[in-house]
Amino acid sequence: MSKVDIVRFAPKNGEGFYDTLKKEIDQFFKTNHLTVDGSSKIAWKTVVMLSIFFVPAVLINTGVGALHPAFFYFLWFMMGVGMIGIGCSVHHDSNHGAYSSNKTVNTIIGDLVNLVGGYDVTWRIQHNILHHTYTNIEGLDEDIDSGGLMRFSPHSTYHKIHKFQHIYGWFLYCLLTLQWVTYKDYRLLIIYNRKGLLRKEKITLAKAILELSIYKVIYFGYTIVLPIMYSGMSWQEVLIGFVILHAVAGFGLSTIFQLAHVMEVAEFPEPSADRKMENSWAIHQLLNTCNFSRKSRIMNWFIGGLNYQIEHHLFPHISHIHYSRISEIVKKTAKQYNLPYFEYPNFLVALREHGKMLYKMGRTQPA
Fold it and tell me: Given phi > 0 = left and psi -120 to 50 = alpha, else beta, which region is 203?
């Protein structure tokens, strides 16, 4: 299709769940004299996450990593951990405008994704516009579109290979960022240009491809070319390290985001014939989003509050540093309106339940 076939959500009535919740959240920030952005509290985390990624890169490119093969590969592993941290704790807030009250700061920090293999333009379209607006809606939310290799939605086309996706899916998750840094961003630019979405970012296809290509040259320059030249290790060992980096980052980022929506308790609603949804946007988000590890400070710190996906989807403009406190308000208000609040006690339980969902989708025909 040439344009995004949008749907319309049911209107708010002024006294519903989201209206009440917004008043409660606004009062929370007013009472506690807080701003919704991350302010200085998130700045030190930025330094830590960037260090986890770029310090090992420097050690690799200066030959220090060649002291021992195990140390060399460990540095690549840490770069993968750092990529997860940058993507979740730094870049994510900034691209939602929640990192700082200063738009320029948000733009600069958001552009860091370009230096670690991604592209801010395609990310904002896929994540901010499509995923956050049309969560779990087949044909609009690209986070549940795997190109046929995986089946996440009961409305997706079924293939016999999906019977085994609960086994091979974990391997494919390791390839997520490897797709990003090679071909996926180029493919998305062509698709988004055809759908008229690049205009929302005020950029032409030619300019976007040029920008993206420059960023890719820089990225592959310091992750492959320079290590081959100066790391003191063979090109085969460099490529193994590069794969380790992306296997760690790909698996981590895939599971963090999949545990939020591709679960048995989450809904995958379809619009009516006239492209209208039964529920309002906020209730739609509540019915297909899950939290996990809500009590874990370590998890919340490292993955930038993405274990509080319910709060993030309802209030993406609020920094993740506030999610743990406002989650109690969201949970209480959901209960008040007899709405569900899906959560799992920890990451491993949520991962197990996601595995069950993969198994189920591999054995049921489309609804």
Answer: beta
